[in-house]
Design brief:
alpha+beta, six-stranded antiparallel β-sheet, five-stranded mixed β-sheet
Length: 416
Amino acid sequence: MELGELEKATDEDYLTRTQAFAYIIQKNPDALKDLKELKKIASLLMVDELHVSDENGVIQYSSIPKYIGLDFHKGKQMRAFLPLLEDTTGTKYYVQKEQPNTAEGKIMKYVGIARGNPRGIIQIGLAPKRLMDARDKGEIFEWNHRKYYIKSIKYEKIWICGIVSVKELYRNRIFNSLILSVYMILLCIVVTIFLDRLLEKKLIRGIHEILDGLTKIRKGNLDTRISVEGNPELIELSAGINSMVDSILYEHEHDSLTRLPTYHSFKKMVEKVMEEKNRGYAAGIMIDLDKFKAVNDTYGHDFGDEYLKYMAEKMRELPEQSCIISRRSGDEFCMFIYGYADREQLTNQIEEFWDELNSYPVVLPDGKISHLVASGGIAFLEENTTFARMMYDADLALYEAKKGAPGTFRIFEGNN
């Protein structure tokens, strides 16, 4: 029973890795087009293969390039996953036993889940390690109506053989076997009782704790931490799961280029501060880099990326205890500044930041020194104002700044 639970726990782990892959490509579909990124995800999830098919069951994306174009309709092993194509909800899954794969005949274990939108199959593959034990066996032959047992071994160039009649060999065997069986039964009872208590204390409880944690993670609670004590292997396993989840969570919540928090993560952090009673005076700020298109057109997109990193570097200089920063998209950034005694003090901080921003040095590819130039919109946080409303008002103020005087900021003044 417990071995069954252990196998179930392993399958649950593989399913969680498949769902983690689905989650990553849902949030970052461009990763499917980048082989290097796919291999990075495979390494992160500790699997050997990643595959995604289209609605017709043909593999379109894979961490193994030669598998692209394989059809799930061909081969008994691949056809087992076809029912997943009929699922439009993205909830069905299939955990396959180890068997030769259709592509190369390699022993593999595959786990697949249905992809809802767009429809298809999301699949991971693992290559299990297999051990084979060999045993030497003797042979029985019959001569002159009597059976004999012969055993032979080779020592250098000499064969050494032993032969005995089966009747002689098995004389007293039944009695001796009965005595041995009684001792073995008693020993098994004692060992079973001992192992049962040991497993209950050291292993089973830990497995159940890991299973409970994996269930929470599978349901989307990526803040779950798994903590197991006692068994070194389970401690290592739980630490590995926590590390994997932390990596996935970090990648999900941070922009891949600037490493600033994503807008989704920014929203969660700001709303948490907005719920605090002693947050002081606060404001939401929308920022747009001016003439960014000209930078890209003149110096190329590679330097355009570096230009965005300059902006992120400048924003990181703001005090973490009173400022939350983020890259929203493209050349747009946003901030939330809080904890000030009055609006004047808060405005002075924003003015100081803008003066430093417009004089922040940027080294151009031709060696010349330029400066960051950005327009901004400010919306002070009022009572009963939602996050969405505050950032919308800041966006309106940003529009006015870019229309009137690029390189400056405007404060949202309501409908006046």
